[in-house]
Design goal:
heterodimer; A: alpha/beta; four-stranded mixed beta sheet; 4 helices; globular; B: alpha/beta; two-stranded antiparallel sheet
């Protein structure tokens, strides 16, 4: 079972050296709470300075969205989010109030991504798809 | 949550971004009663936007708002953003997607259902602010 996670981080907030540890933590949490057969690819989106806001002010928050199987058990979902929260905050030293985690069922989660991808003009789609595919392959290949 | 992602063909200048972020936050909070701390707004130039619209916004909000709340909030956000951009209303589009509150976590706690934020904030946000004060006092000592 192949699942995806998207991590949106503010520029300059999460050092790139921390990303492998964060990816590893996400993969471990998914294996623990979704199942040992679950494989996770992680994509990163950096929000440039001046492009992220919370409460109407410049944001320091990170947002992690993990797609889980449709109809995923709520107790397991909460345990997954809690483990991600704890590991992320431990690794990055971010406050839990600087972290928004979503563990969304695959099908409705895909609808949100689709709404965003529909906005990409045709001329930019090849670059977007290439970037995404490169990140997915790198993420799958990275040992935990 | 909510998370509003704004995509456009051209980079919107910083002052307008700030004004748009504030307008979305104020409208979302005034219509739903949600605390502003929950409202995240991001701008994405990389995605680029369609040529038809000046600014396209995808808002992911918690499930449970009434149709009236969503449609009045929708109209207000589009109106305010169009005003900030000096654009017509049809050059700004807003798509609202709903997600159950219990699918998301912030501050280390599962988000409350719409309408129950006050108790959640009293318990968790106060705890957070007290800890932040304590931590900064520890640093100063």
């Amino acid at each position: 079972m192949l699942l995806t996670a998207t991590c949106m981080v503010q520029e300059g907030r999460i050092p790139s050296e921390q990303r492998p540890a964060l990816e590893s933590a996400l993969k471990k949490a998914v294996r623990t709470h979704v199942g040992p057969e679950a494989r996770l690819t992680v994509a990163w989106l950096t929000i440039p300075r001046g492009s992220g806001y919370a409460a109407g002010k410049p944001s320091t928050s990170s947002m992690v969205q993990i797609a889980v199987p449709d109809g995923f058990d709520q107790t397991a979902r909460e345990a997954l989010m809690r483990q991600v929260n704890d590991r992320w905050c431990h690794i990055t030293r971010q406050s839990p109030f600087e972290l928004l985690i979503g563990a969304t069922d695959k099908t409705p989660g895909r609808a949100v991504i689709k709404s965003l991808v529909e906005q990409i003009p045709l001329r930019k789609k090849p670059r977007f798809i290439a970037d995404y595919a490169k990140q997915a392959i790198t993420s799958l290949a990275r040992s935990d | 949550m909510p998370l509003y992602t704004c995509v456009s063909d051209h980079r919107t200048d910083d002052a307008k971004r700030q004004a748009i972020a504030l307008a979305i936050t104020e409208s979302h909070c005034s219509h739903t009663g949600a605390p502003p701390e929950f409202v995240h707004v991001t701008f994405n130039d990389y995605l680029g936007g369609t040529s038809k619209s000046t600014l396209r916004i995808v808002g992911t909000i918690r499930t449970g708002r009434t149709h009236e709340v969503k449609s009045s909030m929708h109209a207000e956000i589009v109106g305010k953003v169009a005003g900030i951009l000096s654009a017509s209303h049809d050059q700004v589009t807003l798509v609202l997607q709903e997600m159950p509150a219990e699918w998301a976590m912030e501050g280390g706690h599962v988000l409350p259902a719409p309408g129950t934020e006050a108790g959640w904030m009293r318990t968790h946000w106060t705890e957070h602010e007290e800890k932040a004060k304590h931590d900064s006092a520890s640093v100063l000592r």
